[in-house]
Amino acid sequence: MSGGSCSGAFDWCQFLGRWQAEWVPRQGDEEGGGSGTVVLGRDGASEAAIVAVEERLGRRLPASYREFLAVSDGWYVDQMAGVYQLGGVGEIGWFGDPFDMTSVYEEGLGDHPSPEEVLLAGMWRRALRLETDSDMSYALLDPGDVGADGEWALYVYKGWGGESPDRYSSFRVYMEAMYRHFHATRAERADFVNASTREQDARVERARLLALRGRYEEAVPLLEEAFAFGRPHSAVLLHQIRHFSAPRGTEGYGGLVADARYQADVLPVEAMEPARGQWRLGGDDHWLGMMAARGTDREVAEAVLGAVRDGTHCYAPSGAWGRAVGEAREAALRGACDGAWRVLRRALPLWEQPGPLLIVPLGLLADPVLGPLVTPERGREVLATPRAGESGPAPEPVPDLDPPGLAWLAGPTDGFRASFGGGYRCVWVEGVEPERLPELVGEEGAVLSAPRRPFDVARSALRAHEREDEGVELWEDRALVAAGCSEGGWAFAFDGYGPHCMNHLFRSPVTDASGGGRAVVVWCERGRAEAGERPDVFHLSVAEGSVELYGFTLRGTEVERFGGMPIPEALDPERLFLAGDAGTGGQVRALDALHRELGLSLPRFALTQGRLPTFTTRSWTRAPREGEGFAYLGFTRSRSR
After folding, report:
1. Measured between alpha carbons, how far is 469 from 497 in angstroms, rounded to an integer?
2. Cβ proximity of 510 and 521 under 8 Å
């Protein structure tokens, strides 16, 4: 390359010279020749030659492409399965849309196309074609897509791919991307070492230390550039940051799944997607084969996949961090998810790396109990916390997720609760542990189950409702409840996922529950009064020492009071449900009053997104008495023929 000027904001001489000096064939590319045997560029075009081609085209070329031609009149890009060679001033010309791509893209514009879609549709007929050798690919400069700096956008269209073309904001941006691509396709060569690779590897190490110091936002651009150059370890470090920034995503960690230092963290995280049934192509066998190809023992991978899928996997690191994880798990299993996170937050600086390539406690994400606690905001809190012996300022704590009290129960419903009308019922017992609840209000032989997701609780509740179990009468209403602890020393048993409807046979479990201490029962059914079917219902009963103290049931505008004591003024239904308002407004007032007067609350996160143990209660309805009617209707859905 000679004969061109190297003046200007971007030094094309230095850039192209470095590319040429570093050039080696791809690993295993015997036809590529040895280092120095391939000349990538040509002598630069003269100003007169550039002006001549501009006169032939009828347009002045954009600055970065003009400056490039003055240094090298063409270039061997060598893009795998894409553009191989860019032509010089004597070879470029208008594309002319020989395949009528304009019509194809115009047909797909729709009624309200974006400016970008309109530009792309018109690009094909006005674009300047640059490549002279390719794999059915085209490098097209678009004079209709011009930036504020006067540069034309460059599109690369791979005709065999059937996808929209890749867009680069200028010719220079395209060439810089191709230089990074050149590096990435040679990164696996052991002898591919030069000033650029050493510079990028230094960036990776600096980013690793920045991430451990909580300065992950500074680390990301360093890792992104190194990743574009294909530098070792850049991907696994970048993926960890991205994974904690969006904890419900999935990332790959390559050979770390087979490294004894990292496997306990990495393999369960890799198993999360197939465990959720999202690995459709080939199913488990395909995933297990991929793990084996990356060096993991198949039996080990299969065992981990099974444990992640059935919820028995347990993240169990060592040391002080491991002890905090165990303490947090116990708290979360009782419903104290915010308290569990505070335990983890305090201990996070004590986390130790099992090896230099792990920069976050990655295995936390795969724990069925603690993983759901890591929201995107909390994930970024982890990333911003100095750890593994590094120092730096601590981030501002992320606010708790659970709202105080009970009023959230009257808010909008989603998921399974919405499908059952948004109703709920709950038993609270003061001063007991959740393990005691099955004894107090459970069916015969009931014990707490293993922790379960709300989805599984709802599905089991629906199945139990639909089948006729042996020994269960049709009039019985046994509830599958999630159990835990709420603030103020109350244990709770909550049913908000199964189908239920309060009827005239209702029997409050409050007196049974109060054998363990003061007990409260609340049952709320959202009615369908607008359809004339049923009114809103709100029930409260309070007992102590197996004696019902007070309570009421409000159906629409009708109130039934009961118990041996007057209802406290703060809980009086006439005060809470103004003008017989049993709808949302009255429910909110009642729930707020229960929180203020009795200290009742429920952990929203644990009940909607966490994992809690469950058990089946005794019937919430009594047997029909002589002269009382009871009807049970069953419906099945069948396909019409």
Report:
1. 20
2. yes
Amino acid found at 328: A
Report the mean per-residue pLDDT for the chain.
90
Kindly give, in sequence order, each residue whose CB lies less than 8 Å from that of residue 138, ignoring residues fewer than 6 positions away. 83, 95, 129, 131, 155, 156, 157, 159
What is the four-CA torsion angle of 335, 336, 338, 340, rounded to 10 degrees?
-110
Write down the pTM of the prediction: 0.86
Would you state the structure tokens that stand for residue 337, as one six-digit string? 């998810």
DSSP H or E run through 605 = helix 604-608
Q: Round to whole Å and give the CA distance between 442 and 621.
A: 14
> Number of C-alpha atoms within 13 angstroms, CB side, residue 7?
1
> What angle, 0 to 180 degrees and rounded to 10, lies between the N-to-C axes of helices 216-228 and 195-212?
150
Averaged pLDDT for residues 482-500? 90
* Of the candidates 495, 467, 517, 455, the residue with the CA atom closest to the CA atom of residue 616: 495
The pLDDT assigned to 551 comes to 96
pLDDT, tens digit, for every residue of 154-202?
Answer: 999 998 877 899 999 999 999 999 999 999 999 999 999 999 999 999 9
Burial 240-266 (b: 16+ CB within 10 A, else e): bbbbbbebeebbebbebbbbeebbbbb
**Mean pLDDT across 605-622:** 93
Q: At what angle do helices 63-71 and 171-184 cross, to 10 degrees?
A: 60
Query: Does the pLDDT at position 637 exceed 60?
Result: no
Summarised one tens digit per residue, pLDDT across range 100-112 is 999 999 998 988 9
Q: Residue 196's pLDDT is what? A: 97
Detail the DSSP E strand segments found in 159-247.
166-168
DSSP per-residue letters across 517-575: S-EEEEEEE---GGGTS---EEEEEEEETTEEEEEEEEETTEEEEESSSPPPGGG-HHH
355: its two tokens: 């090896």
Q: Residue 26 class from Cβ within 10 Å (0-12 exposed, 13-18 middle, 19+ buried)?
A: middle
Question: Residues with Cβ < 8 Å from 403, sequence gap 6 or more?
Answer: 604
Do residues 606 and 612 lie in contact, with contact meaning Cβ atoms separated by under 8 Å? Answer: yes
**DSSP H/E element including 602:** none
pLDDT at residue 421 above 70? no
388 vs 639 pLDDT, higher one: 388
Whether residue 447 contacts residue 615, with contact meaning beta carbons closer than 8 Å, is answered with yes
pLDDT at 501: 74
Report the alpha-carbon distance of residue 598 to residue 357 in Å, rounded.
Answer: 51
What's the one-letter identity of residue 261?
A: R
233, 327, 372 from 404: Cα distances, Å? 44, 23, 20
Which of these, 355, 320, 325, lies nearest to 237 by C-alpha position? Answer: 355
pLDDT at residue 3, rounded to an integer: 47
Angle, helices 216-228 vs 171-184, to 10°: value is: 80
- Which helix (H) or strand (E) segment is 174 a member of? helix 171-184
Of 134-138, 244-248, 452-456, 472-476, where does the model show the most confidence? 134-138
74-89: average pLDDT: 92
Tell me the HSE value of 538 on the side-chain side, using a 13 A CA sphere. Answer: 26
Residues 355, 343: Cα–Cα separation, whole Å: 24
